[in-house]
């Protein structure tokens, strides 16, 4: 199932004028005009008579109410949530386009946004389920709420003065990204939720900017966990509602230094998100999720369940290019496929009293850094601790029951809620496991043990062995938890150093890369605004971080040539005193009457842009310059939604990734059998021995199995080598020195590969 994308055009604000409206909603041609609109139309910034159209699942016009949006888009997701599907709803758009209004909304009943309405729907359904099952199914709701501010994660249930400056760490846990040490608060009524939510929102970072008096300076993520407990099963599902911060054009915000830092972090994370979406849509093997915490947490395309993106748009001309950019992003996002997999209900340990299985740690949970995670999304590490304390005995990881206890009760209870929902094969298989009950609300992991227990080949002894292995694991886990329970005794200094270490772990080698990405991002921003000199400058600053990106180099070259040519033309004109000539074959004239954005070069803030600053008037643009512009409509289509975008900057790892031709420290390989690194001659491609040729052939095959089979390589390294090769695109590794310079390889490994082949007797 793909991400569902709907657009919402906000009404004009007080200071905005009707005549400036350029974004409109439309129904598809030939369709029923009474049908809800699904198309957003916006003029071509270079030619008002042309328009671009973008189709989405739905488009909400300026007069659409909060109720309409909720009823059509969000209410239907509630039942899926209770059927075990996770849902993710996020608002995306430029600053001041109405994301917070859509997600949170105002205080009056009519103004309430998606989040309070969603919770209201959740509680209503809770009551219905409890009533329909005469109390046999109990539903518990809890929430965590956090923000990503300047790429740091902060718990919104903690006031800013109590926060650790470095924020909460995030970790990958079985494919899911979790925030460690997040508070999870139970909230059993809408009133309770609203109280907690309002309190937490006070802690959210907002400030006044020129474009929005209450601008969100962070991405806010609300995670609502729903636990449905029957006599035999526990099913957990989660709704994530995300109010992303909006991208900002800092020339329009008049931001001060602090706001600029925030803005740069916001823009960077949104840029990375766009890169991820682009990489997914191009089916690239590397999706740069890890380059921003927001993209790691959002994990668009990696998450399961239902995903709804609400694209917020401002209707007015002052947002023209930003709106196009958002529309283009949304257009790509709608193609992303999300696996429609539900969370499986797991058997609970019926020995435990019902209430104890779903108790929640609440605000007592403390941060427990640098230790393994063992539960699901946004793991609340204190949760199991609380459970354990609630009973005298430690809770068993699982129990084995006799055949007498069949899972029919569970099957019927759950299936009555899951009518019409596709089930996975694995689940069907797991349902067949009749004899197992699992610990508390643990996810399906324990089922695997159960499946193994049911394998026909397992003897009683191996079952015993498995059980004692699981008990050992649990005891080890408990020991770890006990150890970290004493974490409060850590000194602040030690805590600080741990935080630093975690940051370093997270950052790894990303520093240079993110700096380079920042420059690319700024280049793109300048480019869409038609500021060539500053674009060039940003590309030049980015080049050292992507030295092997040929497209970047050619882009720089093309820009330099174009700027030179333009300056030459300007110089010629000023010398001859000639005014614009209509007969000039390769020039187009910006119509003075039409405020076409792209033809009028806006002044830039950058110091070296004096030449551009002088250009307050519309200027001549060469035809090729126009055609190269980011928003040119696709050829042959005046109403095409796919306008060209710059895709040339897929990230490449810095220097070490690609093969370096001349690196002093590299070993020199000689192709005679007994020579070790450090020998004299450099192998020339034409002089390679069969062994070298064979190694290079295997490497260039990009076949992970063949590469892994080379001596001393192993799965991880083979994977890294293939990633390097993919990033080299069509280029190949031509000699052993280049091979040694690949990331994670080195001279010793290459030597091992050679020795391995000799030992095999083939060479
Ligand atoms: N549908 C709407 N109806 C009425 N007013 C709206 C609507 N959408 C937005 N607004 C108003 O527009 C202004 C900006 O909205 P909002 O703060 O929600 O923008 P935002 O996209 O969240 O901005 P930022 O990214 O800076 O936080 C607010 O005054 C808000 O009340």
Automatic annotation (TrEMBL):
One GO biological process term: spindle elongation
Pfam families reported in the protein's UniProt record: Kinesin
Principal place of residence: cytoplasm
Localization terms from the record: Cytoplasm
Keyword Cell cycle in annotation: no
Residue span, Kinesin motor domain: 2-336
This protein's name: Kinesin family protein-like protein
Source organism of the structure: Lophiostoma macrostomum CBS 122681
């Amino acid at each position: 199932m793909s991400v569902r994308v709907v657009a919402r055009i906000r009404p004009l604000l007080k200071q905005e004028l009707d005549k400036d409206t350029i974004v409109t909603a439309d129904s598809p041609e030939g369709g029923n005009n009474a049908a809800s609109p699904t198309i957003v139309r916006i003029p071509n910034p270079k030619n008002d008579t042309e328009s671009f159209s973008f189709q989405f699942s739905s488009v909400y016009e300026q007069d659409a109410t909060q109720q309409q949006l909720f009823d059509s888009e969000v209410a239907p997701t509630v039942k899926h949530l209770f059927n075990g599907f996770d849902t993710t709803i996020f608002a995306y758009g430029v600053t001041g386009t109405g994301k917070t209004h859509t997600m949170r909304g105002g205080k009056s009943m009519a103004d309430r946004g998606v989040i309070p309405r969603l919770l209201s729907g959740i509680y209503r359904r809770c009551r219905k389920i409890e009533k329909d099952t005469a109390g046999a199914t109990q539903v518990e709701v809890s929430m965590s709420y956090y923000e990503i501010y300047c790429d740091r994660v902060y718990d919104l249930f903690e006031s800013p003065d109590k926060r650790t400056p470095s924020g909460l760490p995030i970790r990958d846990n079985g494919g899911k990204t979790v925030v460690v040490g997040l508070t999870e608060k139970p909230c059993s009524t809408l009133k309770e939720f609203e109280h907690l939510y309002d309190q937490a929102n006070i802690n959210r970072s907002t400030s006044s900017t020129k474009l929005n008096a209450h601008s969100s300076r962070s991405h806010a993520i609300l995670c609502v966990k729903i636990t449905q407990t029957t006599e035999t099963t526990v099913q957990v599902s989660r709704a994530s509602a995300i109010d992303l911060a909006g991208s900002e054009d800092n020339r329009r915000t008049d931001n001060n230094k602090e706001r600029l830092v925030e803005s740069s972090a916001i823009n960077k994370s949104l840029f990375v998100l766009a890169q991820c979406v682009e990489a997914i849509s191009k089916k690239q093997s590397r999706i740069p999720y890890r380059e921003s915490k927001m993209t790691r947490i959002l994990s668009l395309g990696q998450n399961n369940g239902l995903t709804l993106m609400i694209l917020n748009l401002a209707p007015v001309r002052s947002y023209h290019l930003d709106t196009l950019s958002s529309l283009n992003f949304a257009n790509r996002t709608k193609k992303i496929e999300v696996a429609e997999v539900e969370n499986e209900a797991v058997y609970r340990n019926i020995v435990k009293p019902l209430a104890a299985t779903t108790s929640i740690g609440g605000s007592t949970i403390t941060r427990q850094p640098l230790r393994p995670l063992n539960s699901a999304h946004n793991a609340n590490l204190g949760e199991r601790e609380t459970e354990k304390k609630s009973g005298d005995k430690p809770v068993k990881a699982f129990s084995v029951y006799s055949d007498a206890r069949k899972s029919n009760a569970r099957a019927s209870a759950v299936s009555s809620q899951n009518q019409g929902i596709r089930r996975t094969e694995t689940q069907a298989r797991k349902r067949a496991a009749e004899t197992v009950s699992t610990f508390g609300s643990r996810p399906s992991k324990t089922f695997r043990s159960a499946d193994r227990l049911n394998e026909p080949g397992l003897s009683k002894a191996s079952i015993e062995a498995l059980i004692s292995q699981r008990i050992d694991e649990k005891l080890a886990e408990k020991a770890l938890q006990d150890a970290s329970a004493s974490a409060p005794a850590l000194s602040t200094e030690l805590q600080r150093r741990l935080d630093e270490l975690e940051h370093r772990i997270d950052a790894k080698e990303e520093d240079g890369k993110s700096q380079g990405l920042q420059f690319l991002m700024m280049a793109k921003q300048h480019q869409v605004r038609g500021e060539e000199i500053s674009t060039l400058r940003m590309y030049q600053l980015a080049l050292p971080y992507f030295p092997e990106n040929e497209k970047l180099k050619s882009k720089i070259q093309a820009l330099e040539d174009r700027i030179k040519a333009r300056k030459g033309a300007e110089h010629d004109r000023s010398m001859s005193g000639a005014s614009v000539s209509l007969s000039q074959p390769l020039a187009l004239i910006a119509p003075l009457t039409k405020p076409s954005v792209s033809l009028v070069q806006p002044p830039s803030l950058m110091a070296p842009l004096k030449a551009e600053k002088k250009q307050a008037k519309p200027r001549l643009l060469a035809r090729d310059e126009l055609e190269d512009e980011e928003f040119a409509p696709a050829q042959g289509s005046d109403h095409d939604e796919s306008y060209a975008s710059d895709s040339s900057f897929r990230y490449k790892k810095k220097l070490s990734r690609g093969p370096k031709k001349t690196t002093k420290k590299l070993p020199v390989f000689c192709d005679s059998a007994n020579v070790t690194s450090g020998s004299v001659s450099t192998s020339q491609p034409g002089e390679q021995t069969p062994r070298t040729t064979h190694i290079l052939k295997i490497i260039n095959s990009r076949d992970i199995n063949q590469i892994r089979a080379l001596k001393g390589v192993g799965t991880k390294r083979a994977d890294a080598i293939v990633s390097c090769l993919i990033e080299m695109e069509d280029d190949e590794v031509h000699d052993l020195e280049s091979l040694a310079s690949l990331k994670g390889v080195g001279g010793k490994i290459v030597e091992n590969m050679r020795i391995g082949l000799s030992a095999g007797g083939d060479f």
